[in-house]
Amino acid sequence: MKAHIVFSLLAVTHLVSALPAPAPAPSPPGVPSTSTAKSELASLTVAAQGSQDGYSRDLFPHWIIQSGSCNTREVVLKRDGTNVVQSSSCAATSGSWYSPYDGATWTAASDVDIDHLVPLSNAWKSGAASWTTAQRQAFANDLTNPQLLTVTDNVNEAKGDSGPEDWKPSLTSYYCTYAKMWVKVKLVYSLTITSTEKSALTSMLNMCQRH
Description:
Blueprint: H1 2-18, H2 34-43, E1 65-67, E2 70-71, H3 72-80, E3 82-86, E4 92-98, E5 105-106, E6 112-116, H4 120-125, H5 133-140, E7 148-152, H6 153-159, H7 175-188, H8 195-205
Antiparallel strand pairs: 1-2, 3-4, 4-5, 6-7
Helix pairs in contact: 2-7, 2-8, 7-8
Signal peptide: 1-18
Pfam families: GmrSD_C
Organism: Glonium stellatum
């Protein structure tokens, strides 16, 4: 009897060990290393936020066509999803999407948003107010830097226009990546940060060695 139990436990252990590990969540392109992000953060200009006057999301045209009939949202859904099937018009008809902010997985594209990591309003108040429409369009549809990612829709709504000093992902394990992406985008677009924003980013980058 004991031998049979031991054999059964070994069989179960082998079965569990044979199961594939869950696939890591896709990351947007251009996420810097921790050391690079810390250096980049130190180089950003610290200044008070500018005025919200004149701001409108319409001044940041999105989602634009990227290739064929596929717009930016559809390209990011394909990039960030698993087994994504698209219609002839590029709409995602099936697949699954993991939201790194809260750890939820969704199987309907209607349940996820494409988040502007650095919100359009935040960009406006930290330098984008003086940009041309073409520059703002490039920022709002950036597939080269870590500015766009697929997340749970109501989590994106809760984030709103907040920066890391006022809003953080519910998964603390994502703080490190979130901060590195934020710093990279601010650097690429020469956007300023506030002193409280810098403090929040510094604390989040200090989480990197723990995960």
